[in-house]
Amino acid sequence: MTFVLKKKLKETDFEKALETVIEALKSCDLIVLAQARICKSVKAALNEDFGDCLVITFCYPEYAAGFLRADPDSLALLPCHAALRKDKGSDEIFLLFPDPIKYFGIANNSKMNGVAEVVLKKLNDVFDKL
């Protein structure tokens, strides 16, 4: 069972892929907030190389508000991030999102599930831009 939505990107240059993904997020009205270069941190701390990877944090306030209205504790689960990954020794770059249907399915809350379905459509719109 998969817990992520995943798309292989056309680009083979990681920084170019990052630019393309950020533009796709913005073109779908998602606000890009931050980037965390996870693999660089792991390599610096543990000297273990996983290639290039980072997490992009983004927000769509309307959807965040919908989850918070359904359950304020959903703040801990907001699907406001994407992962960009290029494995060591590979030219393939992948964009990954948490699957909001599976993510919020654990809450067993019909209001949250309804918002998750709308979020899934928005994330697929981002994939369509790539």
From TrEMBL:
It comes from the Eukaryota. CDD domains: DUF302. Pfam families: DUF302. Residues 42-90 form the DUF302 domain. This is Duf302 domain-containing protein. It comes from Anaeramoeba ignava.
